[in-house]
Amino acid sequence: MKLLFVAGPTPSNIFALAPLATAARNAGHQVFMSAPKELTSVVTGVGLPALAATTTDLTALKATRRSGEPEHVPDDVDHPDFIQYTGRWFGRLAAHSLVRLREVVAAWRPDALVGGPHAYAAALLAHEYDVPWIRHSWTALDTVGIHTGSEGELTPELAELGLGRLVLPDLLIDNCPPAIRPADAAPAQQIRWTPLNTQRPLEPWMYTRPARRRVCVTGGSMATTSNNFDLIRSMVQRLTALDAEIVIPAPAEVADELHAQFPQVRAGWIPLDVLMPTCDLIVHHAGGLTGLTASLAGVPQLLLPQEAKVREAARLVADYGAARSLLPHEVDPDSVGKALDALLEDPTYTDRSHDLGREIAAMPSPAEVVAVLEDLAAR
C-alpha cells in the first residue's frame, strides 16, 4: 500500500501525523510525507521520506491574497475575522501545493491520502484521482470557521472539480481522548497519541527528577511568535518566586534570549516526551500535542490559550479536572499565582491527570489503525 501524508504548515502538524505514518512504514507500506519546503527537515528529522509541497515561502502565502492584494491580518486573535483569515491562508497553501503534489500523485499513484485537519490539498487530490482520503485531527479545534474561509479561497479549484464545497473525508482519525472530546464531535476512529518529536542527544538531567519540583514552561513549536514568547517570559518571571526548577523547551533562538534574561533556567530544544515524566507541572499555550504529551505522563497543566480556536480544548481539559485554564484577559499576577498554587498543592489535579493518561494509553495504537487504513484502501 502506498500512503501520501499531507502535513500542514507547522511542526506540530508533522508530529501529529508521524506516529501513524511511521507505523504504516513499519508494517511494510510505502509512505511519503509532504510539507511546506521550510519544514521538510522536520519530516526527515522524524525518519520519514519528505516531499516539498511548496516553492513560495509561508510568509508570502500568509501576507498576499491570490489577487496579489495584501492580506488583512487582524491584530487581535479574538477578532471575529481571525479564524476566517486562518482559513484563507490555509486555502492558499493548499492551492499552491496542488501544483507539485498533483505531479506526485499522478506519477506515484498512492492508494490513500492522509491529511492534517486543515491540509485541504489532500481532499482535493483524493477527489480528483478517486482515492480515499483520511483527515487526521487532534484536540478540539475550531474547524468550521477555518473550513469556511478555505472554501472561499479555493473556489476556482473546487469549481474545476465540479464541487461547491470541500467533500467530507472517507475516514476521520482523532487522537483526542473521549473524556475531553466535544460531545458534538463527528464520529471518528480513535488513535493513541504516541509522542514523536525532534530529538537531540540526551543529558542525565533531562530524564531524572531533580530534588526540587520541576515546572516546564513552553510555547511549543510556535514559541518564536511574539505572543507565545511574551507569554513564556511573563510566566518565567512569575515562577522564579517559587522554589522550583524551571525548564523551557524552545527553539535555539528563543532559548538564547531567555538565557540572557533568566540565566537560572534550563532552556533549549529538549524533547518533551523525555522531559515530561520528570515534571510536576507544565505551563503552556494550550497546544494540542503538548497537552496530550503532558496528559499521557499524568502531569497537571496551566493552560494559557491565546487563539480562540484552541480555547474550547483548554476548557474541556480544565472541566475534566486535569488543568486550570486562563484566558488572556484573566491573566494577572493574582490569578496566575492562585492557579500555580492549586495545581502544585492540590493532589486532585495530579489524580485526574493520571486518569486521563490511562485513558490515552488504552486507545488503539497507531499499528492497529494501520489495519483500518488497509481495509479502507482495499475497499
Structural commentary:
With 379 residues, the protein is α/β, with parallel strands linked by helices. The protein folds into 2 domains: 2-192 and 363-378, Rossmann fold; 204-361, Rossmann fold. 46% of the residues lie in helices and 14% in strands. The chain contains 16 helices and 13 strands. The protein has helices at 11-26, 40-45, 58-63, 82-108, 120-129, 144-153, 155-160, 204-207, 226-239, 252-261, 272-275, 288-296, 311-320, 333-345, 347-361, 366-378, and strands at residues 2-6, 30-35, 50-52, 112-115, 133-137, 171-174, 189-190, 213-218, 244-249, 266-268, 281-284, 301-303, 323-325. The protein has a 7-stranded parallel sheet, with helices on both faces. The protein has a 6-stranded parallel sheet with strand order 10-9-8-11-12-13, with helices on both faces. Strand 9, helix 10 (252-261) and strand 10 (266-268) form a beta-alpha-beta unit. Helix 4 runs parallel beside helix 5 (120-129) and helix 12 (288-296) packs across helix 15. Pfam families: EryCIII-like_C, EryCIII-like_N. InterPro entries: EryCIII-like_C, EryCIII-like_N, UDP_glucos_trans.
